[in-house]
Amino acid sequence: MPHSTSVQRSKTAMVVWGVVALGAGVAAFYALRYGVTNDGWRNVVGWIGGLALGAVALVAGAGIFFASGTAACPSCAKALDALDPGIACVAPCSCGALVKVSGGRASALGEDDVLEAPLLRAPLPERILWPEGCLVC
Predict the structure, then answer these.
(1) pLDDT per residue as tens digits for the range 104-130
(2) What is the pTM of this model?
(3) 3-class secondary structure for the chain?
């Protein structure tokens, strides 16, 4: 297995978001162009429908740029989903390995690796009081 793998944006997710954005944008255009008239209820429905479809188009358009990435686990080669190549993080794999994502690369964390920032918070009190007796007994 390679020591590190590349994080790739999901092309399928980008295409799906693009199709949704295009469809909602065209529907919003037609709703605003032909649905808004001087006829009372039709005017309200045209505005609400057009603006709602426009909002869906904007969210789907943003989804193209923020589509999650995938990478193969460096330890077992299983697919890791919901990764962002631009954000450093640590993702667990189902094989038990911890995978560090940084700079568009995914690499397995070894037992001796030291991260730049703490992975897990473990707050401790200033003074630790241990019980008098054995914890097991």
Answers:
(1) 888 988 888 887 777 667 787 888 887
(2) 0.53
(3) CCCEEECEECHHHHHHHHHHHHHHHHHHHHHHHHHCCCCHHHHHHHHHHHHHHHHHHHHHHHHHHCCCEEEECCCCCCEEEEECCCCCEEEECCCCCEEEEECCEEEECCCCCCCCCCCCCCCCCCCCCCCCCCCCC
